Amino acid sequence: MKKAFIIGIGGQDGSYLSEYLLELGYEVYGIVRRNSVCEHQESRVSHLDGRIKTFYGDLLDISSIEKVLRDVMPDEIYNLAAQSHVRISFDIPQFTTQVNALGVLNLLESYKQICPKARFYQASSSEMFGEILTKKQNERTPFNPRSPYAVSKVFGHFIVKNYRESYNLFAVSGILFNHESPLRGETFVTRKITRAVGRIYHKLQTKLTLGNINAERDWGFAGDFVEAMWLMMQHNKPEDWVVATGKSISVKEFLKKSFEYVNLDAEEYLLISDKYFRPNEVNFLQGDPEKIKKELNWDPKVKIDDLVKMMV
Ligand code: F7E
Questions:
Q1: Distance 179 CA to ligand 1 centre (A)
Q2: For strand 52-56 and strand 76-79, is the pairing parallel, antiparallel, or unpaired?
Q3: Minimum-distance ligand 1 atom for the alpha carbon of 82
Q4: What pLDDT does residue 35 have?
Q5: Ligand 1: which residue has its CA nearest to atom 36?
Q6: What is the mean pLDDT of residues 229-256?
Q7: Reduced to 3 states, what is the DSSP secondary structure of residue 146?
Q8: What are the residue ranges of helices labelled H in 202-286?
Q9: Are 90 and 277 contacting, i.e. CB atoms less than 8 angstroms apart?
Q10: Is the pLDDT confidence value at 40 over 70?
Q11: I need a surface site. Which of 41, 135, 215, 266 has the fewest CB within 10 A?
Q12: 3-state SS of 240-259?
């Protein structure tokens, strides 16, 4: 039976990936951070109680990670842990960099020393493309990051590549475009919108305040994207892969679709506030998933209208 170790198991992707790996017969281990709101940040995986094994730890407390690596000796390590909110990365740039950049380096060092035969997955991000340099972005598109988050992810991406090339490790990065689900954090725009639709419909909320609704993103379903992570870990050689649907729509269109789903007009409830604008915006992203479709036979099943429906 294969053993997988997921750092960031308490997040949206950690939850979907755990379910996916359990279905495949894996033993699943994960690190959860202590937090004062939810005693052990496990709510997204609490339905898997008894089927997965979690330990307290933190990417910034490398001894907590090393202990698990030594005890479990995993076959596959998935690094999904991050300060993942782009706007908030402007408020806490140093913390974001500690976790998303140095955290990856520390993890790679421990992996190299303790279990170098394992395979390693790094959650890279389409935000690294930033102010885009080509209409569709693929594995060969240069990075042009626009936020402390994106800059930290570029470091994580290149340090994984450097360890792969220097030490012959099976370490891959998935450059994932936006991927959403009912488990998405409530301050990301898709969840903020779809949650507001439900609350407005049930008269629990009267207005929805957003920032730049003209931004366009390539939005897919997190459940489809974790399958892509696993597929790249099974490939015969470690490489980097773009994971995207290949189609983009604006926040405004996503908003319209969400309200229309319950026959409401978004315009009647929408407010715009400076508070949600970023000092530096990524206006447009659209992935080119040709490589992963062709070489790993990956095809996202959930289309944008199904995603809206599922989330509303
Ligand atoms: O923003 C605009 C905002 O915060 C999407 C993370 O998972 O995907 C995510 O990053 C767009 C931006 O996601 C609001 O300005 C308008 O243009 O949902 P988001 P993101 O920044 O694209 C990438 C791939 C990651 O790697 C990240 O970790 O929506 N927007 N009004 C708003 N965004 C938010 N959050 N809140 C608003 O009120």
A1: 11
A2: unpaired
A3: 28
A4: 76
A5: 189
A6: 98
A7: coil
A8: 222-234, 251-260
A9: no
A10: no
A11: 135
A12: EEEECCCCCEEHHHHHHHHH
